[in-house]
Specification:
Elements lengths: L2 E3 L15 E3 L5 H19 L5 H21 L4 H27 L5 H25 L5
Length: 139
C-alpha cells in the first residue's frame, strides 16, 4: 500500500482515521471535489418529492461511482488507470444528466442544481487532466 505523509500545512477538511497518513487518492483535489459533489447529490436526493425516487437514486449511485472509480484508478497505472478514469468521467456525466432531469421535472431547485453543476464541471475537467497524464499526454 502506498501512503503519503499528511503535512501539517495541509488544508484538507477530510476526517481520517489516522490524520498523519493520507492514501494517494486523498491528496487529489479531484477526490475532494468528487466527495463534495456526492454530498450535494445526497442532499438533493433527500429533498426529492415522491415520484422521483428512481432518478434521485440513479444520481446518487452515479455520484458514488464517479468517486469510487477515481479512487480505484489511483491504484492502477498507465492505460489501465486511464480506462478507469474514463469510467469515472462517464459517471460524472450521468450525475449531470440525472440532476438535469430532476430540475426539469421540478424535483430539484435551481440553486442546488447550480452548486452541483459547478462541482461536476470541475470534476470532469480534473478527470480529463488525469486521463491525459495517465496516457502520457494524449487525449
Amino acid at each position: 500500500m502506498i501512503v503519503s505523509v499528511h503535512r501539517p500545512t495541509c488544508t484538507c477538511s477530510c476526517s481520517h482515521p489516522d490524520p498523519g497518513v493520507l492514501l494517494d487518492h486523498e491528496r487529489l483535489d479531484a477526490y475532494r471535489v468528487s466527495d463534495q459533489l456526492d454530498v450535494e447529490v445526497v442532499a438533493i436526493a433527500r429533498r426529492v418529492p415522491r415520484g422521483h425516487a428512481g432518478l434521485a437514486d440513479q444520481a446518487q449511485r452515479a455520484s458514488a461511482s464517479a468517486n469510487l472509480n477515481l479512487v480505484e484508478a489511483m491504484g492502477r497505472t498507465g492505460a489501465d488507470r486511464a480506462r478507469v478514469l474514463r469510467i469515472a468521467r462517464g459517471e460524472a456525466f450521468e450525475v449531470d444528466a440525472a440532476l438535469t432531469r430532476l430540475q426539469r421535472r421540478g424535483a430539484c431547485d435551481a440553486a442546488s442544481r447550480a452548486r452541483a453543476r459547478e462541482l461536476n464541471v470541475r470534476l470532469v475537467q480534473m478527470l480529463v487532466g488525469l486521463i491525459v497524464v495517465a496516457e502520457g499526454g494524449r487525449e
